[in-house]
Amino acid sequence: MPRDIQLTEKIRLLRQFWRLEHRAPTYAEMLDLFGYKSKNAVFGLLQKLEEAGYLSKDGHGRITFLPRLTGTVRILGSIAAGFPTQEEEQETEAITLDEYLVKNPDNTFMLTVRGDSMIDAGIMPGDIVLVEKGPKPNQNDIVVARVDEEWTLKYYVRDNAGVRLEPANPKYKFIRPIRSLEIGGIVRAVIRKY
Amino acid sequence: MPRDIQLTEKIRLLRQFWRLEHRAPTYAEMLDLFGYKSKNAVFGLLQKLEEAGYLSKDGHGRITFLPRLTGTVRILGSIAAGFPTQEEEQETEAITLDEYLVKNPDNTFMLTVRGDSMIDAGIMPGDIVLVEKGPKPNQNDIVVARVDEEWTLKYYVRDNAGVRLEPANPKYKFIRPIRSLEIGGIVRAVIRKY
DNA sequence: AGGATAACTGAACGTCCGTTCAGATTACAA
DNA sequence: TTGTAATCTGAACGGACGTTCAGTTATCCT
Predict the structure, then answer these.
(1) Would you list the DSSP string of chain B?
(2) Are the Cβ atoms of A111 and B79 closer than 8 angstroms?
(3) How much is the pLDDT for A36?
C-alpha cells in the first residue's frame, strides 16, 4: 500500500511541525511541508485526516490537532505482548504525558527528591515527584510535609492518636507532629529519568 | 499590586484555553476571554506578554505560546526549599513533561511493568516505563529484552563472555543469551502514578 | 486637585486564510 | 486501450485575522 505509507509520512511531518511550533500549520505552510502546489490538495488531505480522527475543524476552518497527533507516546498494553512492527505502530493510540499525569496544572509542582526515607516505596534519591498543592490528603497518601523546619516525603496516616508521618524505610521512625503540621502537597506521580 | 494579579489571572485563562483547545486563541476569542471590548486592548496585552516571554509572534502575527504558557508543571528546585506562596508561584518556570521525558517521540512507547525483576532499581510492578526503540544500548542501560519467548526488563551488561542480562533482584539470576538476543528498546524513564 | 501616563474604545484597513470550482493529470480496472 | 474514479493544479472569492490610529477613559503620583 504505497498510498498509506505516504499518508503515514505526512502524519509524521505534522507531528514534527507540532513539536516545533506548538500549533497547526497553515495551508501555505502545508504546501511546503507536503510538496503540494495547490491548496486544494491540502484541503483534501485534511478532510481525510479529519474523518480518520487526527484533527478537527471549527466553524471558521481553524484546525485543532487531536491527541492522536499531539500525543508523544504510543501506548502498548503490556510488556509481554512484545514490540510493534513498523505497520502496527501507526494504529496504536497516542497520549500526552502532561494530560495523563497532571490533573490540576495550576497547583502542580515538580521537585527533586533528596534522601532515602521513601525508598521502600520505590522513591529513590534524585527522583522527581509531581506534587499537587491544596487538597486534603487521604489515608496513606504520600505527602510533602514540613517537620522540624525541614521538608520531607512521608506517608500520611491517621490513627487514634491523631496524625503520624510514616517513612518507607526501616532506618527511620515515624514522626508525630506536636504542635503544627504543615502539608505542602500530595504526591501524585513519581518520575525517574535515565 | 492589583494590576499584576489581574495579569496573572489572564495568564491563567490563556493556559486554560490552551489546555482545552490545544491552540492559541484568536483576538475575537480573547475579547470574550478577557472581557475587553476592543481588539487593541488585546493587542497591548499580547505585547506585554511577548516581552515577558510568554509567547512569540511570527511575521504574520500568528501567536505561538512558549513553554511558560504551555507547560503544565512548575519547577521547584529541591524539596528542602519549601513550597511557594501565591506570589512566588507565578515567577517559577514551567515545563512540559512530554518534552522533558520524550526525546524521540516517533520511537517512544509506553508500557506497564509486570514482575519484580527490577525492584531494587526502583521499578515496581504496575509502574510505567517509557521505552525508546532503535538505538543500541549502552553498558548498564535498562532494556526491554526478549528471553525465552518472553519480554522482560533487565540491565544490559557487556563483559568478557559477551552480553548478559542482569536483574535488579537477588531472587533472580542473570541470563546469558545463547543464540539470539532481541532488544525491544531502552528504558528512558519510569513513571508511577498514584 | 491636577497633570501625566497608561489602558481601553471604536472604527477602519490590508493581508492572509480556508474554501470552492472548473479543468488537467494520474492511478486503477476491465 | 479505454473508461472511470481519485487526485492534483491554478485561480478566484469572501471572510476573518492581526494591526493601526485617533480619541476617550481610567490610573497613578505629587
Answers:
(1) -HHHHHHHHHHHHHHHHHHHHSSPPPHHHHHHHHT-S-HHHHHHHHHHHHHTTSEEE-TT--EEE-HHHH--EEEEEEGGG----HHHHTTS-EE-HHHHH-S-GGGEEEEE--SSTTGGGT--TT-EEEEE-SSPPPTT-EEEEEETTEEEEEEEEEETTEEEEE-SSTTS--B--SS--EEEEEEEEEEEE-
(2) yes
(3) 93
Strand, helix or coil for residue A15: helix
pLDDT digit string, tens, across residues B73-130 = 988 766 555 566 555 555 677 889 999 999 999 889 998 998 899 999 999 999 999 9
Q: How far apart are the first and last CA of chain B?
A: 38
CA distance B26 to B121: 48
User: What is residue B1's predicted lDDT score, i.e. its pLDDT?
Assistant: 33
Q: What is the pLDDT of residues A121-148, one digit of tens each?
A: 999 999 999 999 989 999 999 999 887 7
| Domains recognised in chain B with CATH numbers | 2-99 (1.10.10.10), 102-191 (2.10.109.10)
Query: Does B28 touch chain A if contact means CB atoms closer than 8 Å?
Result: no
- Low-confidence stretches of chain B (pLDDT < 50) are 1-3
**Residues in A touching B105 (Cβ below 8 Å):** 15, 19, 72-73
Query: Residue B3's pLDDT is what?
Result: 43
With the CA atoms of A135, A141, A146 and A150 taken in that order, what torsion angle do they form, in degrees rounded to the nearest 10? -140
Judged by C1' against the alpha carbon of A38, the nearest nucleotide is D9
Of B63, B106, B193, the CB nearest to A189: B193
- Whether A62 and chain B come into contact, CB under 8 Å, resolves to yes
Three-class SS state of A32:
helix
Chain A residues in contact with B122 (beta carbon < 8 A) = 119, 122-124, 127, 192
Name the residue type at position A132: E
CA geometry: angle at B8 spanning B2 and B11, to 5°?
145
Set of cell numbers at residue B107: 520511537
